[in-house]
Each structure stands twice: as structure tokens, then as C-alpha cells.
Amino acid sequence: KGPETCDARTIKEEELKAVTVKAINSLIAKRENIKESIKESVKKGLRKDDDKRLVELDKEILKLQEELVKKAMAGDDYDDLEKMIERHREEKEQLLLKQAKVIQRREKLKECSEFIESMEIQIDEYEEELVRKLIQNINVREDGYTVIFKSGIEVEI
Fold first, then answer.
1. What integer pLDDT is reported at residue 108 of this predicted model?
2. Rounded to an integer, what distance in angstroms lies between the CA atom of residue 147 and that of residue 136?
3. I need a surface site. Which of 15, 20, 99, 124 has the fewest CB within 10 A?
4. Can you give the pLDDT at residue 142?
């Protein structure tokens, strides 16, 4: 339906490229603060409590399975045990998914940290390969832009 139905402003590619360069240079300029922030983020996430809970769940599932076999052999009802085993498996799956996400985020943070560390000077022009490696997306606002890096760091331009 064209411009009549869309009131979003038009953004030229060169403008987005300039915003991208500014965001990367801003990240480089603030590298000391960002490196500390990344270190803190890397420390967070995986918790020893989660590891302990995974071990507990494995033990509980094994114990419940043994009880289920005994009840089945005796001809007793074991529906309640099946439900408990399923709940434990679901909890375990959620914990494993959470851990995988944390590990993935750590890798992204590590990549970003390595990039920041390697940059001695600011960049002068847009570099496609660098942008694809670092930037997740750019949000366009009425009053500016938010550049979101794959590491989760956001820079307002």
C-alpha cells in the first residue's frame, strides 16, 4: 500500500553504515569499562547450584525408576512414579538448556572481548565482515539508534 500506510522514516544505507562505525568506535573508546563488564558477565551465569541440582535429579530419577520397576513387577500402580520421573526429566532439560544458553553467551562475550582487545585504533570506514561478526541488529528510533552487539552490549547513537 506504500508510503500512505507506513510512517517509518527512510534510512539510507550510508547512514546505517555511519551509525555502525560510530557504535564500533564507541565500543573501542570505552574498552576498559566494557572489558570489566564482560569479565563480570562471564563470571555470572553458570551456578554451582545448577550443577548440584542436575546430579540430584539424576540420582532421584534413577531411584524412582528402580521403584517403578519394583511396583511394575509386583503388579502395583505406578502412575504417580511415572509423573514424578517426567517432572524431574523436564526440570533437568530446563537446567541443561539454561546452561547451554549461558555457555553460548560466554562465547559471544569472549569473542567481543578479544575484538576489543585487538583494536588499537578506531576504524575509519564500514567493514562488512567485521559488522557481521559483531553486530546482532540496529534498532531505529525517532531520536537515534541502538546498536546491539552479539555479546549483548548496546550502544546508543
1. 75
2. 8
3. 124
4. 85
Burial class of residue 151 in the structure, from the number of CB atoms within 10 Å of its CB (0-12 exposed, 13-18 middle, 19+ buried): buried
Would you tell me the crossing angle of helices 79-118 and 48-74 to the nearest 10 degrees?
A: 160
CB 18 within 8 A of CB 147: no
Structure confidence at residue 3 (pLDDT): 59
Q: Please tell me the number of Cα atoms within 13 Å of 119 on its side-chain side.
A: 21
Low-confidence ranges of the chain (pLDDT < 50): none
Whole-number pLDDT of residue 43 = 64
**Percent helix, strand and coil across the chain, each rounded to 5?**
70, 10, 20
Rg (the chain; Cα; Å):
25
- What is the pLDDT at residue 120? 65
Distances (CA, A) of 76 to 50, 63, 70, 72, 87: 34, 17, 9, 6, 21
Alpha-carbon separation of residue 101 from 8, 43, 92, 97 (angstroms):
34, 14, 14, 6
